[in-house]
Each structure stands twice: as C-alpha cells, then as structure tokens.
Design brief:
This protein is mainly α. It has one domain: Rhodopsin 7-helix transmembrane proteins (Rhopdopsin 7-helix transmembrane proteins). The chain is 77% helix and 3% strand. It contains eleven helices and three strands; from the N terminus they run H-E-H-H-E-H-H-H-E-H-H-H-H-H. Helix 4 packs antiparallel against helix 6, helix 4 runs parallel beside helix 8 and helix 8 packs antiparallel against helix 9. The longest helix is centred in the middle third of the chain and has 34 residues.
Length: 314
Amino acid sequence: MERENRTAVHEFILVGFSSFPDLRIVLFIVFFLIYLTSLVANILLIATIRLDCTLHIPMYFFLSVLSCSEICYSFVVIPKMLASLITERRTISFRGCISQMFFFNVFGGANCMLLAMMSYDRYVAICKPLHYPVLMKESICRQLVASAYSTSFVGAVIEIGFILKLPFCGPNRICHFFCELAPILRLACEKSSAAEISIFIICMVIIFCSFCLILLSYALILHTIIRIPSAEGKHKAFSTCASHIIVVVVHFGCASVVYLRPRSMYSPDKDIFLSVSYTVLTPLLKPMLYSLRNKDVQIDLRNVLGRKVFKKAA
C-alpha cells in the first residue's frame, strides 16, 4: 500500500524509434521480416532435431532448448515493438512493463547459461570422449537445463523485487523500445544505490560466470586440439566449435556492453542500436549459423522439408 501511494505512474511511454517517424513503416517491414524468418528458422531447427533420431545427442538437445528459448525471448519484446511501430500506440501499463522485464531477464539469463553448457558439452566431447556417455547422459543434460532456468528465474525475481520497491512518480518516458532494467531504474523518483548495485551484481554473476566457464572450456579444448597430431583431426575438432564460438562472441559482446559498462557511458541511441542487435538479429543469426556450418543439420533439414513436400504432393 505504501508503494502504491508513492507511485503515481500507471503506464510508461516507450519512445523507441519515434525520432525516426519517416522510417516507421520501413522499420516495421524490416523487423517483421527478420522476426518471421527467425521464428521459422528456429522452429525448423527444433523440428529437425526432434524428428531425426541421429540428432538425439546432447549437443543438439542443448541447441533445440536454446532455439526454443530464443523464440520465447524474441516474443517477449518484438511483437510489442512491431505494434508500436504500426499503430503509434507506444504506451505500456506498469504491470505489463514489469512482466516484460521479468520474462526478458529470465530467458536472457537462461540463454547465457545454455551457451555455457554447450561449451561444456564440446569440452567433454573433445577432451574426455571416453567419459562422454556418462558425463553427458540424458538425465544430466536435463538437470543442467533445469538449473539454468531456475538460476535465471531466481535472479529475475530478485531484480524485479528491487524494482517494485522503488517509487515511480515523475517522468514515464522510457528511452527504449521495450522495458529494460537500466532505463526503468533511471525513472525512479528516489535513487537506490543498493538496488542498482544488487542488480548489477546479479547481471554480472550470470553473464560473467557463464562467459568464464566458456573461456575455461575453450582453453582446455584448444590445449587438446594442439596435441592432436594430424591437421585433419585438428580441423575436424575445431569445426565442431566454430559456430558456437561465433554465437558466443556476438551474444556476450552485446550483453557485456549493455549490462556491464559504467553508468557514465550510457547513451540511449547506442542502447537502442545494441538492443536491436541482440533482440532482433541474434535470434536469427544463431539458427542460421548452426545450420549453415553443420552438414548433419543441413542434410536432416532437407530430409524433413522433403518429407513435408512429399506428403503435400501425395
């Protein structure tokens, strides 16, 4: 009740791309096509992995979970952004904003940890191939995925808890196209260093720890690859990691710039550009990279599509 009395803001205005009114329709078409392509690509990748028994191994299990998470991650942000572009209705209720922020943080944090688990999978496959069936059996993989979502969920609950304790009684214009932690914190009537530091620590733990695990895994993988005598063996071992490395660089590069930088370096325009890269582009980039660089997935994808075409013809 006390917080409600101190909070006069019942809705926020998402400024988004309003500074580019002439490009509104163009941006809608571009983002809609990218979102649709991303959605189809991720669904096809999931269907291919599910339908082909040869892909029922830990690496592709994590990939299918990551693709499913990317679909949810994009769905939290992009439909509202598209609606704002086409209708010019840029308002979002206080509860809607909190919900969007919560689910965005849950799926965003889970994606970081899933990428770390995929690097661990490659480490076991390359460095400990004889122990792979034991260390990466189905039950362990499911436990790893459950732990990723549980940790991300708890982190998001704590972050939102700090946000809900802050009073919002003044400006309600968010210089962004969705409700993100940093812009929301700046709108609070009372600045809370404890809230800002706590949220920063949670983001750093999830992002930094995931990235450190990835670095450690690839350091051990590189050490093992160097000791492989044949050039063909080195190439084969490295090729299984190439797509994942590119995705990791793109994902953590954007995340670290947005969440782990000093507050003095904040720039709304740069934030919007970076946010487009990791909310719109990376969900499309990930399935494309894994499909284009993986011959097994390409072959199985053709088989799945071929079966669908054949059934329609019949």
